[in-house]
UniProtKB/TrEMBL annotation:
It is found in: Endoplasmic reticulum membrane. Residues 555-654 form the Glycosyl transferase domain. Residues 101-381 form the Exostosin GT47 domain. It comes from the Eukaryota. The chain crosses the membrane at residues 24-46. It is a single-pass type II membrane protein. Residues 256-283 form a coiled coil. Its main location: endoplasmic reticulum. It comes from Poecilia mexicana. Keywords: Coiled coil, Disulfide bond, Endoplasmic reticulum, Membrane, Transferase, Transmembrane, Transmembrane helix. This is Exostosin glycosyltransferase 2.
Length: 671
């Protein structure tokens, strides 16, 4: 007991003495280690947006504190801009590298204030609130990196949203001074108001080398398909006025026009429509009895009555969006927010985000020359479809138009999908509103009301009066497994089509459309009867094609041919009754930048029924005109888009010595 007691009296006494001696040392050491771990974790995992938000927030005075950069008069100026640029020619995808998250990395240049050698700023407004919001949103996103060596895409902090506020030459010099500029390679510029008086170019006039342009007013002439991104013109009312979502359905007015700067010819046409249709159309203008300012911008007037804008837009089923001096209009955003179906009349306008958004589901596009027919066109749309379009219009605004953040991140996602196509968002993801789920079961109340396009293809056969040949074509086409519908375009106004009992019996719907005029372009009109993505346009004398060959390949460009063909090409084709096939090839080649796909061996043209009297191609001037039209079309496009193709796509086992039943397309190539 004594020994035990002795040990217990000394042992406990030694331990407290040791703690007292080294306590400060151990506590200090532990604190240093702990703080080091915490700091390391914060630097490694804390979002970079915390650091960048201080840089991109106007309220914190970052603009005033930004370094001043003086531009010598002799500073280099970038080239105007390469219209032939595509992702594979002017963009270095290898900078993006492999990314397990399939997400591009975007670097934003540090904010700088550029002035000329006399100290005059390159912009009259500096950094706008809209551009500040855009940069802040990107810096807060998963796209952002503050490591310039990891960046795939570079965004200057130079605000070029509004060209009216820019000094063109000096802005270009500032861009060229950026340390990673490299002729604009992998650089992205955002511009919503391009051009200036008197011409109002549809793309930013600032020379920009190879930089990508997210532009708010592109036309088919200036838009580089698959390279630039068409964006909306942001409406400041999106942040200032909150319009509650309204249930789709009939509204007080059928058509409403609210723009104040409409060309006098268009306004005169709208006034004629108003006289013809009475209260169904409300035609508004600016209020002359109100003082100019922010308050008056939110008012519209008609015969002395004042309406609140944009609230009045919710009272109409359709809202007119006419081109102004610029193609892109902020009114489009206001109309979408109101859940009003936009009726867009702006020839050659590239609609915002049209690379991924299906605007047929949310808008009606009418050629400017058809303005007088607008009421009739809109009345032909079924009520249920109008309701679906109203719902889709509102959702487009919420998802893609409602803020600078939405516009900026949508732009980056489109570019991201180009670089990582295997991980790109699908058509449904871009265009279908999110489906509300209840207990893991889709409620029918929230299912998308517009179904996906029907599978298969529609065969559009242009005919005049070659009945025997037409019936042979119909019989052969009807054998194609993927055929969904036959649409016969009867182009003879002086003769009625055969009686129904005389037509070949086929296993798919067959519809005959009688045209008002004998035009070759009728074969490419986007008829309402076409319910498939793919369309085969064929003449009534192409009897040598087999069903296997038709099954092998087809594509859909009818809408672009009818409404987006540049210049007077379509009118030229209709007037000369020639070259519609060449015009279509010009259009497709210009859009895709690719050569056509040659499939199977060349065939000899056979048409026993064709004679020198009724055959267009047998006219002696026919081939001469085809040479002329190639030169004309190249002049209109400003380039020769047609590509040389040096290969042919044949089916697997096409010429191999295998039993026919083992081949997917055995009946190909026979003459």
């Amino acid at each position: 007991m004594y020994a035990s007691g002795k040990y217990s009296s000394r042992g406990p006494a030694l331990i407290p003495r040791m703690k007292t001696k080294h306590r400060i040392y151990y506590i200090a050491l532990f604190s240093v280690v702990l703080l080091g771990l915490i700091a390391t974790g914060m630097f490694q995992f804390w979002p970079h947006s915390i650091e960048s938000s201080a840089e991109w927030t106007l309220e914190k005075g970052s603009v005033h504190d930004a370094p001043l950069i003086r531009l010598p008069a002799s500073s280099p100026i970038p080239e105007r801009g390469d219209l032939s640029c595509r992702m594979h020619t002017c963009f270095d995808v290898y900078r993006c590298g492999y990314n397990p998250k399939n997400k591009i990395k975007v670097y934003i240049y540090a904010l700088q204030r550029f002035v000329d050698e006399f100290g005059v700023p390159i912009s009259s407004t500096g950094l706008s609130r809209e551009y500040n919001d855009l940069l802040s949103a990107i810096s807060d996103s998963d796209f952002y990196t503050d490591d310039v060596t990891r960046a795939c895409l570079f965004i200057p902090s130079i605000d070029v949203l509004n060209q009216n506020s820019l000094r063109i030459r000096e802005t270009a010099q500032a861009l060229a001074m950026l340390p990673r500029w490299d002729k604009g390679m992998n650089h992205l510029l955002f511009n919503m108001l391009p051009g200036g008086p008197p011409d109002y170019n549809t793309a930013l006039d600032v020379p920009r080398d190879r930089a990508l342009l997210a532009g708010g007013g592109f036309s088919t002439w200036t838009y580089r398909q698959g390279y630039d991104v068409s964006i909306p013109v942001y409406s400041p009312l999106s942040a200032d006025v909150l319009l509650p979502e309204r249930h789709p359905g009939p509204r007080r007015y059928f058509i409403l026009s609210s723009q104040t700067a409409i060309h006098r010819e268009y306004r005169a046409e709208l006034e004629r429509l108003k006289e013809e249709n009475g209260e169904a159309l409300l035609l508004l203008d600016k209020c002359s009895n109100l003082s100019q300012g922010a308050a008056s911008a939110r008012k519209r007037c008609c015969k002395g009555q004042v309406y609140d804008y944009p609230q009045i837009l919710q009272e109409s089923s359709f809202c007119v969006v006419l081109r102004g001096a610029r193609l892109g209009q902020a009114a489009l955003s206001d109309v979408l927010q109101a859940g009003c179906v936009p009726v867009i009349l702006a020839d050659s306008y590239i609609l915002p985000f049209s690379e991924v958004l299906d605007w047929k589901r949310a808008s009606v596009v009418i050629p400017e020359e058809k303005l007088s027919e607008m009421y009739t066109i809109l009345k032909s749309i079924p009520h249920r479809q109008v309701e679906e379009m109203q719902r889709q219009a509102r959702w487009f605004w919420e998802a893609y138009f409602s803020s600078m953040k939405a516009i900026g991140l949508t732009t980056l996602q489109i570019i991201n999908d180009r670089i990582y196509p295997y991980a790109a968002r699908t058509y449904e993801q871009w265009n279908n509103p999110p489906v509300v789920k209840w207990s893991s079961v889709n409620s029918p109340l929230f299912l998308p009301l517009i179904p996906p396009r029907a599978p298969g293809f529609t065969a559009v056969v242009l005919t005049y009066d070659r009945i025997e040949s037409l019936f042979r074509v119909i019989t052969e086409i009807s054998k194609v497994p993927s055929l969904a519908k036959l649409l016969i375009v009867w182009n003879n106004q002086n003769k009625s089509p055969p009686e129904e009992s005389l037509w070949p019996k086929v296993g798919v719907p067959l519809k005959v459309v009688r045209t008002k005029e004998n035009k070759l372009s009728n074969r490419f009109f986007p008829y309402d009867e076409i319910e498939t993505e793919a369309v085969l346009a064929i003449d009534d004398d192409i009897i040598m094609l087999t069903s296997d060959e038709l099954q092998f390949g087809y594509e859909y460009f009818n809408y672009l041919y009818t409404y987006k063909m540049p210049g007077d090409i379509k009118n030229w084709v209709d007037a000369h009754m020639n070259c519609e096939d060449i015009a279509m090839n010009f259009l497709v080649a210009n859009i895709t930048g690719k050569a056509p796909i040659k499939v199977t061996p060349r065939k000899k043209f056979k048409c026993p029924e064709c004679t020198a009297i009724d055959g267009l191609s047998l006219d002696q001037t026919h081939m001469v005109e085809r040479s002329e039209c190639i030169n004309k079309f190249a002049s209109v496009f400003g380039t020769m888009p047609l590509k040389v193709v040096e290969h042919r796509a044949d089916p697997v086992l096409y010429k191999d010595d295998f039993p026919e039943k083992l081949k997917s397309f055995p009946n190909i190539g026979s003459l």
